[in-house]
Amino acid sequence: MACEGGGSNVRSSYYTILGIRKDASVSDIRTAYRKLAMKWHPDRYARNPGVAGEAKRRFQQIQEAYSVLNDENKRSMYDVGLYDPHEDDDDDFCDFMQEMISMMNNVKDALKKDLLNNV
Question: At 94, which CATH number?
């Protein structure tokens, strides 16, 4: 499936890249991103070409992880393994799955309300 996400063996998990837990809040994600972006920003290593390439690679990974985990829709798709920013072929499928996840969450919320009303 083209929309792989959280379980991909090809590259590190976005959560691992940012050094956060899967249940991290938006604030935790933002804080981790800012800290790592400052640490690995390529401009900091401009005078050291030996490290500049590694800094650029890490900075790009950090930006990619943040762009997915900071977006609620992308993050939910990533968490269920249906998001891959490197493949554009299955955008329609990913949109469909996002809609399905949203509908399932709505049903889950409605069931919780029904259970609470019946107690």
Answer: 1.10.287.110
